[in-house]
Here is the input.
Amino acid sequence: MRKYSILLCIGLMFSINALIADVRLPQIFSDGMVLQRNQPIAVWGWADPGEQVKVNLNSQRQETTADADGKWKLTLSPEEAGGPFQLVVSGKNTLTLSDVLIGEVWICSGQSNMEWIVANSNNAEQEIAKANYPQIRHVKIPRITAGEPLDDIEESLEWEEANPQNVGDFTAVGYFYARELHKELNVPIGLINTSWGGTMVETWISKEALKKDKNLKKAVLAYENTPADTVRKNTNPNRYPTLLFNAMINPLIPYTVKGAIWYQGESNAGRAYEYRTSFPMMITDWRKRWGLGDFPFYFVQLASFKAAGGTSATGSTWAELREAQHLTLSLPRTGEAVTIDIGTTNDIHPRNKQDVGKRLAAVALHDSYGRDVVYSGPEYKKHKTSGNQVTIHFDHVGGGLTTHGADEVIGFEIAGADQRFYPAEAKIEGETIVVSSSSVSKPKAVRYAWADDPGTSNLFNNEGFPAGPFRTDNWTPVTKNVVYELKN
Here is the structure.
């Protein structure tokens, strides 16, 4: 009888709490936020079941009703860039968010090179001192893992202005990207920084998407058979798949965004061939779940780094990862910033994040905003063999081919049918490169910058964009048969 009374009291407590539940917004909605311009704006949250919820923004007023689970969602009509505004949400209580801007909103995600902050980047003291961009706003999603998709971030979030007090803790790549966009577009820019150093791509993908691949499915099934109390919050995000999708992506959906920028891949280099599947899978998964169509997705190709010291002769996992990234351009509305020239042999974290941001911004300005700008370096198009010479043709030559740091072209290799590569002599002839070696009489393959750390490879266009690494052969990659296995 006593047990029944206790249960009855608990039931009454829950009933009373349900009756007095406040209207609530997700944590991503807070003072100083940036909403996406020129697109329908999703607003959602929680209230009492059946409660009428009103949302006011600028001159708009929309109403909806919370469903049986207390969830509600509505869509505001597109707004032009501007602000500051108030976003007012009311039901039995009223929420007023102030200093709300409308502009361009970008997800910034990946591992440590995206998480890397302005304070640790080149010329940090000067960059911080001159940061005076009140229309650039940044919000950092806290590091957390979850075994199942979360509806909301469990911690309060703060949108911060780009000023000397705050900018040191911004994602450096994101900030320098936003700064270039703001200078060109003159509209507010919002950065949602959801990144975690050392993470592999599989932890950023939903369980349902991973199950569609026969190899990745095995890891998911092993994860599903793991006791629930084993998968704890804040555990190693690489221990199981999908943990960061659950905790750091799903709670942001369906916040209206323009697109995403991504810097990741170092942790997947050992399985570079599989990245040809997993990386486009993640992009497709995010797009499907956001419901915004093929929103722009721009990524950074890995910079040079010694890693395991891989070369064409020994096999380079990092070169193969860069190739997998480049192949992802087959997806619509994707773009790539090549950074092979800014890496540091002994440091996986290049401090030059300014050029990374600028190159991503050039891609965005061309692809998303219709600007007539050069946004890429020379990109392998085709080749023709004549005798002992191979002529390489390129796209994105811009104002012409050139070299940096030396008069001769450095970084080309050539091989015959024996698949032994030799350093090649390479000459610029118009918009082509002619490659040869006295050691190879019948060339079958040419490679450029094909190594973990290709060092002084130096082919650029006159606009200052580096040529991306490439190979003309289709010889078997060293990572071809390496697949994801659940870490115990």
Notes: Residues 379-471 form one domain. DSSP finds ten helices and 23 strands in the chain. The longest helix spans residues 272-290.
